[in-house]
Amino acid sequence: xxxxxxxxxxxxADAEGAIRLITFFDSxxxxxxxxxxxxxxxxxxxxxxxxxxDSEGHFALRGMPSGSWDSARAGRHxxxxxxxxxxxxxxxxxxxxxxxxxxxxxxxxxACLATLRRGDRSSPTVGDPALLELIIARxxxxxxxxxxxxxxxxxxxTTLTLIAVLGPLEGVDALAADLGARDLRPxxxxxxxxxxxxxxxPGPRDLQVPHGVSVGIGPPVHAVDGPTSWEKAVxxxxxxxxxxxxxxxxxxxxxxxxxxxxxxxxxxxxxxxADIVDVTDLDALDxxxxxxxxxxxxxxxxxxxxxxxxxxAARQLHLHHNSVSARLVRAEExxxxxxxxxxxxxxxxxALALRRLREVDLPL
Length: 364
Hints:
Elements: H1 2-5, H2 15-30, H3 35-46, E1 50-54, E2 60-63, E3 69-70, E4 79-83, E5 86-90, H4 101-118, H5 130-136, H6 142-151, E6 159-166, H7 169-181, E7 187-191, E8 194-200, E9 214-222, H8 226-237, E10 255-257, H9 264-270, H10 280-290, H11 294-307, H12 310-317, H13 321-335, H14 342-359
Parallel strand pairs: 9-10
Antiparallel strand pairs: 1-2, 1-5, 2-3, 4-5, 6-8, 6-9, 7-8
Helix pairs in contact: 2-4, 3-4, 5-6, 10-11, 11-12, 11-14, 12-13
């Protein structure tokens, strides 16, 4: 009987097919299957991806006809049904739909909501973003973290990399889609003002992020050590600067890996905004930022620090080195030291880092 029900995608849209479709979902509800199992079985029946996501953008789960599942959202060809703050969908990717699609969506919606309401809300189930929050929170007890790891469908020794993201939701969704396209299948949650993503394996080095999005990438760790990777990812995020579109983008570094920070990682882990006060060099940078052509001046200083030399900075800024030199002379008058000398360049690098940490203060 079960094997027959799983062939519903090939039935004609007649009364018998509708009855069997209803019976199929009733059978899954009677068995009290998990949400991911419900979606995986529904995807086999529909012969296309199906999923559920919430209206706040915090949660998404997708079942595939292959029997797998992930946390991807609906594609642009999907058809939807909204109910009680959730949206269920199926996506035939432009192919002709079945006459039973509307009924399938209706029964899928009913089954998903019943499954979500069945459990204790304080006890996260598979697909719940709260699972990732439990895994990365330092305060989570070891047994509770182990259970969350199990419900997330991974092993305690699985290598995870935590990624911390700031930016508009559409940009964060685009980043998650890019990671999904690399078959990294990010698990997602919102922690304070940041978005948390967890992927298996190391963080990619060639990540391209949308405008307005900044990213911090922690080190790969065993899943049981998730809090360590998350804390380092947040520290890296504090140094990241998003691309906004314009001349200042030459000094923007939207993706920062904690592994590249060295001793600057210690500063991000120990200093909060309230700690960074009465620093003369920061006062000078603030004055430059609010003065004539302040954005250009700060951008030039940031590029100089990354480039290491005036000529390389000029090349990256697409300016003649004399133009860059003139900007630096004006900046040096306010800073009180030569930024092109080794000691001055080191001093400027530290001042810019402290200024960024003061501006971006994120709770762990």
